[in-house]
Structure formats: structure tokens, C-alpha cells
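Pilot study result, target chain (264 residues):
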Amino acid sequence: MKKTNLHKIDLAFKYILAAAGQEDWESRELGPIHLIKYLYLADLAYAECKDGETFTGLTWTFHHFGPWSVEAYKRIEPVISEIGAKGKTISHAKYEEDIIRWSVQDDQLYADLEAQLPLVIITSIKQAVHEFGSDTESLLQYVYQTWPMLTAAPEETLDFKPPAHVKTKYEEAPIPGFSKVSSDDTTKRKEALRSIRERLKAKVKAKEGKRRLRSTPPRYDEVFFEGVKWLDSLAGKCIEPIKGTARFSSEIWKSKARFDPDIS
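Predicted structure:
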């Protein structure tokens, strides 16, 4: 079993925050659960390229909120302190404890980290952070559907060995002209990464422009509410609420229906 690499965990956490800092303001502030899940997704992407070997060497388990690692959680506070991330505490009546969010906007840190991390880690984190940002619900829903989660039961250790039906999303390919030996080549790699980053930003901006054109807010007027009332009437009488307890066999966690793509 590969030994846990604390340095790699720290690098990945830093890059997650730095990548979020490149997004719009509503996606920049991340909490512990976001950092843990994005780290898991980075390990998963790396494992798909490395036949089950993760980047960090962490042992991940199926816990209450999906994939979890106590060892990774313990590295969050040192990383936050080291890079001077800004903290925000949010109180909410729905939760017993306050919600903590961190953010960092540092272009130099962002560039420096890209020069130290494998391309598959950079790509997977950047894509995940851009797609989900600080949207906890959507992120958790996505993570729950990843194949290591679908093949495990609660409190089991997650297996990152890709099943036969899993296709690798990322290629661990060297950037043309890059070598770890020469400082000149390191500069070339940074330039190549910068070019990739600019192209990605251009695509994102184009998509956001199209999204804004499509996002016309509904008119909540009398016509709207009458229409909703009429549509509801088509469904017939309202279903009366009932209370009960549903019990499922623990064998459901190992059911092929959870992970076999040939079973609908």
C-alpha cells in the first residue's frame, strides 16, 4: 500500500483554494467538506490514470458524507494558515455549529502550484471546482455517484482500482517541450499551462455568455400562479401524507444495481 504523502495533500489543498480564487466570487469560498471532496476527486482522477494508485496515498472510507479521510481533514488548518486564506464564519439556524468558509486570491500561488502538480491533478481540480464551486448539494450528489462509492458499503475502505467498465477521463501526458531537469523547460511548461488556462477561460466566458442569454427569470404574476394551479389540477386529488419506517437489507450496498452499467 502506498504511504500517505502529506506534502502532496498540502499542495492539492492549496491548489483547490487557489483554483477557486480564479472563479466568480460566489464560488471562491470553500469549507472543509468542499476541500475534502475535491481532494478525493483529484485522487480518483489520478487513480484512473495509474491503475488504482492515488496521488496522495490516503486511505479513503465511505463515511456519513461520502468519501472521508481523517488524515486529510487534519491537514486543512495548517494549509489555511500557511497560505493566509481569508476565513468567514456563517451562523445559520438550521445548523448547530457555525459554517466556516475560506478563500484565497493569489495569481502567483496559482501559477507556482501548477508548476508543481501533475497535469491530471490540475485538470481534475480545475474542472470540478469550476463546475461545483461552493455548491455543496451538487458536489455531494456527484461524489456519491463515483464508482468507488458505488462499490462500497458504509464504513468500508474505498477501492480505487478501476473496474473494467470505467473509462479514463484524463490522460497523464507530458506537455510538449517539458522536462523536469531543465529550468528552461520548466519555463516552457509554465507557458504551456498558461496558454491552456487562457483557452479554458475563453471557453468558460463564452459559455457564461450563452447561459446569461438563456437565463430569463420567470414572471411571478397572476397568470403564472393561475397556470401552476391549473397544472396541479390535472394531477387529480392531492396524495395524503403518511408516516412510516422503510427498512432495507444491508445487502443493498453490494447490489449490482448500484454499479453495474448493464443493469438499468
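One observation from the pilot: The longest strand covers residues 86-90. A full batch analysis is planned for the follow-on phase.
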